[in-house]
# Entry
Amino acid sequence: MRALRWFALSVGAVVFLLPFAVLVRDGVGGWSEVFSDREIPLVRSLLNSTVVAVGQTVGQVVLCALAGYGLARVPYRHASVVLYAIVATLMVPTAVTFLPSFVVVSSLGWLSDLRGLIVPGLFSALNVFLFRQYFQDFPTPLEEAGRLDGLTVWGVYWRVVVPNSRGFVAAIAVIDFIGSWNQFLWPLIIAQDSSTWTVQVALSSLLTAQNPRITLLFAAATVSILPIVLIFVVLQRYLVRGVTETGLTGQ
Amino acid sequence: MRRSARTFWLFVGPFVAGLLVFTYVPIGWSTYLSFFDAHNTVAPTDFVGLANYVDVLTDGEFLGSVSTFTVFAAFIIPTTTALALALALLVNRIRFARTFFRSVFFLPFACSYVVASLVWKMSLFSGVDSGVVNTVFGWFGGEPQAWIGTVDPPLYWVVLVTVRLWLQLGFYMILFIAALQRIPGNLYEAAWIDGASPRQAFRHITLPGLRGTLIAVLTLNLINAYQAFDEFYNILGDSRGYPPFARPPLVYLYYTSLGSGGQDLGRGSAGAVVLALVIALVTLLTGRVFRRSQ
# Structure
């Protein structure tokens, strides 16, 4: 039984690692030219992806944590109505909003504009919900001590609550960053001009082109996953926590 | 305004404002567009009533894509759930190298659908004899297959299903591991003392302990399956566009409303509304069946 378990796990591990091995193997020949080749705007698209992912992660965490704290801790008569209005949007699948959001973004003149890639994704109802739950369990004595020292609610939030919530913020931020870096449909629609392509769009347009240059493509793809693999290795503790927190709300 | 109300909006206001502009307005606008003839315009004047809905609901392509994806969901959801649970149970049972195996199965979560599509399309399931899967087939005396390049039999489903499994299993496995670790160990000790077999312990302790997570995994899976886009677009699409088969609803909506052959936003919006209702209905039904069977 035990041997069988080890056998199953080992075979599984080989199967799961094989695609990464193939990715690296097939890209070796393209490494020397991957940054200089004109056909794929790799440097530009990596830069765009970085701006989008960093902007989206920071913006999302700041906005959603604020809202989550307000909902959890600031007494207000209509707070439950606001909470319902936020949570209700979780029922609407993104598949349904991508088209109308495109319409809104194009009316704002944000097509082929990094703002159009970043801003609409900032308002994550799921994140607000998670932060609210987290802040509800935040130890009140810490906040009370801050109030006694003469801080306002706003002051307590920034000087007491946030510094003591780094682990949770990191967990949410890691998930947001990976999601943002890897997202495809939204940038495909919005970044119509190649100067605003994210790295996923750049790879995809090369992959679906006529006679794709496969070696170059594999080399570029390898470069594109390096930042996330690095995050995965260094911040896995937070990542696992983030996944657990995010997934359980599905209930 | 009372002070506390002002403080509340100081915290919540920025988010709510954004949610209104980027979620509520789009939903309202799109519902509005779905009743108009909105070719290449977002401010239509030609009210057409339910014509867009009739169009969409009588369009064989749309119906075909929704029903194909109901079959897809019916297959991929139980498979993903069962395999993720199996991985979680395996990883959770070993002591040595547990973190290593957990990381290995979770690692594909770091990979984008685009990159995975590239690997699956151009290397693993490449139709040439030297494609990775064809090579392995060859060792066992199998014939090389075209995989994506052939419709009969529709082997492209093998490619699409395996890439999705590879990308998603680790995520759900993590959820199951977390749930397994929340089950108190003394329950198993008590069962062992009472002479329960491992099978009985699994049936009466593990499964009930996983119930909430199972429902969560099924729901997440369901919503994801209908929203499949990335790997379909990248694996099946090429310079000639997207083939007429295996079209996910999102690919249909994408080409209807944003494709080069005239942007029909009214019809696209009607399709989006119908799709939302389908997803809501299936989620509701699954939830009900699942709860009753417990």
